[in-house]
Amino acid sequence: MKGQNKLFIAIIVALLLGVGIGGVVHVQYPESAEPFSKNIKLLGTVFIRLVQMIIAPLVFTTLVVGIAKMSDIKMIGRVGTKAMLWFITASLVSLFIGLVLVNWLEPGHVTKLPIQDAAAAEDLLKSSKGFSLEDFVKHMIPKSLFEAFATNEVLQIVVFSIMFGVALANLGEEYSKPVVKLFDIIAHAILKMVGYIMWFAPLGVLGSIAAVVAMNGFEIFKVYAVYLRDFFFALGVLWLVLLLVGYLILGNRLFELLRRIKAPLLIAFSTTSSEAVFPKLVEELEKFGCNNRVVSFILPLGYSFNLDGSMMYMTFASIFIAQIYGIEMEIGQQITMLLVLMLTSKGIAGVPRASLVIIVATCSMFGIPPEGIALILPIDHFCDMGRSMTNVLGNALATSAVSKWEGQLENTPQEV
């Protein structure tokens, strides 16, 4: 745990340094803010690209090995069913919490935000057009495994890996054992790489935070104080619900799990990327005592189907935009919106700024001006920090809970 604590402290120091350096540049050298932001942001870009480099091979090898080692197809079906029930329930609860709190707190009625130029939202408006069932199917089923690897389409890799793993499990040990052994060795080698890459995380955090603060300064927090306050309050309520359910299932071991995943949570918060901590999360969940087969199976699925923070944000932001424009929505319309968001949001983890794309598409569907997304773009980075961290917590709890239900959670933490 010593190395993990050092990493955690290094990330905290980098976070504070990033805010300080960004603030100094914004106040003292405003003319240099844009080039400074562009250059220092490269530190964050390098870190995230290093992580992205290993995500596809890690998901592929761990998932194939996990399923092939199960060998029992009934167990695969049982674990998959329990995982999907958790994902669907958690998504509905997250959406519902966002819906209830945005109606109660009414941040759109209290806050006086400047109506910004909709040009800022043009890219999102373009990318939201035609987000149909056909696009969802194409996004889910790969036409080429190599294309899925090249573009880091996690859901497509998951689909292929499940089919390949089931096929290996049915081949018989004589044929499958050498292949499974090879993939197992590759997976462990990649996890070893995770340890090296994570020590670049503090620099990545410093670069990401300094870039945002240098460009926007501290004023951004004042202008959008009400929206940020209400959103993070809603996130806090969601965390309480998730942790309460986690405690009911895991008991006192929940606190051990939180200690294990504190570095991944902080990295996700600082870099706004839950994807960036996937490899580290795999490692920590196995150390916590989760069966590696269950981790390998559930965690990649969770990254496509179990994004609790993003779910809550979608209802919160959609109704907020309606409130800004003075559009009153009946409770029936809001529940319909919740169900639409539930369906359209599945499998979009690989889409850049996926939550915003879905919000734009949903606003258009319900007669809310989609250009309103421009109102929240300036602070979306800060909201993304909270929802990315929440996504990581949700997936860690889901994996641990299913491991416990399957009797596959070791009481004694293991070192991997």
From TrEMBL:
On the tree of life, the source organism's domain of life is: Bacteria
* Gene3D superfamilies membership: Sodium:dicarboxylate symporter
Task: Quote any Pfam family the record assigns.
Answer: SDF
Keyword annotations for this protein? Cell membrane, Membrane, Transmembrane, Transmembrane helix, Transport
Please tell me where this protein is predominantly located.
Answer: membrane
Q: Kindly list the places in or outside the cell where this protein is found, as annotated in its UniProt entry.
A: Cell membrane
Instruction: Kindly give the membrane topology term recorded for this protein.
Output: Multi-pass membrane protein
Classification via SUPFAM superfamilies: Proton glutamate symport protein (SSF118215)
- The residue ranges crossing the membrane are 7-27, 47-71, 83-105, 154-172, 193-215, 231-250, 331-349, 356-379
Cross-referenced PANTHER family, in alphabetical order? PROTON/GLUTAMATE-ASPARTATE SYMPORTER (PTHR42865), PROTON_GLUTAMATE-ASPARTATE SYMPORTER (PTHR42865:SF7)
**What is the name of the protein in this document?**
Cation:dicarboxylase symporter family transporter
